Amino acid sequence: MRSWPRPEIPLLPGKGQIPAIHDSALGEKVASAQPDATTATIYVCGITPYDAAHMGHAATYLAFDLLIRAWIDAGRQVTYAQCVTDVDDPLLERAEQTGQDWRELAEEQTEVFRREMASLHLVPPDHYVAVADIAEQIAQAGLVLQESGWAYPVPVDDAGPDLYADLSADQLFGQVAHLDAKTMDELFAERGGDPDRVGKRHRLDPLLWRARRPGEPWWDSPLGQGRPGWHIECSVIAASRLGVPFDIQGGGKDLFFPHHEMSISHLRGLTGVASPVGAHVHTGVIGLDGTKMSKSLGNLVLVSDLVAAGSPPAAIRLALISQHYRLDRDWTDTLLAEATQRLAAWSEGLAAASDEGVDVGEGDPQAVATLERMRTALADDLDSPAAIAAVDEYVASGPPTPGGVALVRGAIGGLLGVELG
Ligand code: ZN
Questions:
Q1: Helix axis angle, 384-396 to 313-321, nearest 10°
Q2: Ligand 1 centre from 290 Cα, in Å?
Q3: Higher pLDDT, 95 or 82
Q4: Contact predicate 395/346, CB 8 Å
């Protein structure tokens, strides 16, 4: 489906490094891309479009945007895939409550999301895939799993059957989250799973295909009429758009179990590749005044609301990347005020001269050093606070040269995605 417009990314002199990134499955930093490949590949789980995106979503996509920009700076081609989970219980329930057609609701909210991502200058995915558009392809994958003994039917009264993954077929299951059985069981129940479904072989076995039920959307498929389960959608999109292995599986840290554990398991079943993902990367949770920001708590701060209230998107972006992506952190008015102030200081400090016709970096070793510090910081698990500190110091160090201004402005725009006024 349609993505959003690509922001302009200034090219910088020299070459950045391929970042090392914290792999949450291994608990250590690894190279974020293969050393000898020309293309780096990334899959980031997308939104369920039934409500506007909040700061937690924005922070997650921004973290991966920093990685993509660092890859581009290191000379890599990038292939980026993201899903839109437009067939999902919360969305269908919302549509039912409001009497709106679920497709309309999904398209309306996806459009809000596109506008927010564009306003924050995020590099758009090359493959932006709605689950509703690939339901039959997902069923086909379910059939492959069933034929190879990785899935089994569970009968449904007056319909069906449903199809469930048989996790006992996967000897490597559990290696993403490394959780004990009790924790897995609890999280599975909390996060969309159905441990008590009668007829399953194991409480954790996840749904792959849900047979048609009255009043629910359905598609014709090789598994009969029905709709896709959750985790398999990401497996199918990643395998078909990126191929395996791909470099980065990304998402908020509440997705590491069951979602990423399950979708990687399905990928192993579909492809026979033991390690279909280079690194699992998870972002911290954004809270508001010490409480997790979530739809159910009704304490969402929305990008669209802040922009409507007059906050420059560049300040929102700068605020969100002024703390490390893996930290659980709070969104506060102070954070935004500080970023707005910093943005003004940078714009003022780096507006001294026109950069027309100036060779970037020329005659300003300090600007060159600033670019290198930013690159080094971002190469170390996307340390955006350190990259921002490097710019702060350059700006504070006195009147810059025209060449220095051009270079540092380029670095701010290219690496941090922040456009100065
Ligand atoms: Zn996903």
A1: 120
A2: 27
A3: 82
A4: yes
Q: Is the pLDDT assigned to residue 298 strictly greater than 90?
A: no
Domain residue limits, the chain: 20-283, 304-416
Q: What architecture (CATH level 2) is domain 20-283?
A: 3-Layer(aba) Sandwich (3.40)
Task: List, for residues 122-174, the tens digit of each pLDDT value.
Answer: 999 999 999 999 999 999 999 999 999 999 999 998 888 999 999 999 999 99
Q: How far is the CA of 229 from the centre of ligand 1 (A)?
A: 11
- What is the model's pLDDT at position 353? 58
Give the Å distance between the CA of 234 and the centre of ligand 1: 5
CA of 235 to the centre of ligand 1 (A): 8
C-alpha 48 – ligand 1 centre gap (Å): 10
CA–centroid distance, 319 to ligand 1, in Å, is: 26
Q: Which residues contact 110 (CB under 8 A, 6 or more apart)?
A: 1, 47, 49, 84, 86, 130
Span 214-246, pLDDT tens digits: 989 999 999 999 999 999 999 999 999 999 999
- Asked whether 167 and 173 are in contact (CB, 8 A), the reply is yes
Sheet holding 207-211, edge to edge: 151-156, 159-165, 207-211, 226-228
Q: What is the pLDDT of residue 421?
A: 82
Q: Does domain 304-416 have CATH number 1.10.730.10?
A: yes
Does residue 374 contact residue 387 with C-beta atoms inside 8 Å? yes
Condensed to tens digits (0 to 9), the pLDDT of residues 302-323 reads 898 899 999 999 999 999 999 9
Residue 233 Cα to ligand 1 middle (Å): 7
pTM over the 0.90 mark: yes
**Residue 415 Cα to ligand 1 middle (Å):** 26
DSSP-based three-state secondary structure for 287? strand
